[in-house]
Sequence to fold (228 residues):
Amino acid sequence: MYWVTPRHLAGDDDALAERIGDTLNGLGWRMWPTSRNTLLYVSPDDVRGAEWILAAYPFELGGLPVAWQLSARPRTASAMTEWNAYFTAGVPHEALTDLLLALDAREAPDAGFESAETVLATLSARGWLRDMDRPRTTATDPGFSASISLETLPPLIPDADPRADLLGWQAWAEPALGAPYLWCASFSTSVPHDLVAVFAASLAAPGPVPRRTLPEAAQDRLTIVRRS
Fold:
């Protein structure tokens, strides 16, 4: 077992499905397999959803297949989701777990009142640097290997807001300039900013995380704090 930093380069320990599934089961979310070979989890109030969709290989972010989709509806009778968020394999499971815990605890999962600044302020408090050219939309870790930015949504990221050229939070880890992405995440425009801030805060948490396996692409950028 390795204890490593930084978290955003630690990978998912090849256990993203199991770790998140355990979290959702612990929260009392129901699960059933679908005809697309995915695993669909639904919250007890039927307005929050999480689906392991890697087997269906629906689309890619940054050249990586999407593994988890999160969604929320305004009410149980609504057929359309208010927002969606997507995460590729390799994303640290701690960050996704913290996001799900916050989503489960919210009284209204489809609405929020915080501004986009709350995401950047959260990252600044953890030592991340605001982009000099885009200080109101983008922050990067001090090692310049991960970023979170408010960008035009990539294709296939649906949202209840039908307008074109919408902005949504995008996050990614790039161990070295020009190297393949380690993981990517995309939040549609209606995801409450304070939920994105929870994900960002966890991603930038300074403490070491345990890993049995280390991502090969990021090993040179990881610090092994101790072995156990």
Q: What stands out?
A: The first helix runs from residue 16 to 26. Residues 120 and 139 are 7 Å apart (CA to CA). The two ends are 5 Å apart (CA to CA). The mean pLDDT is 95.
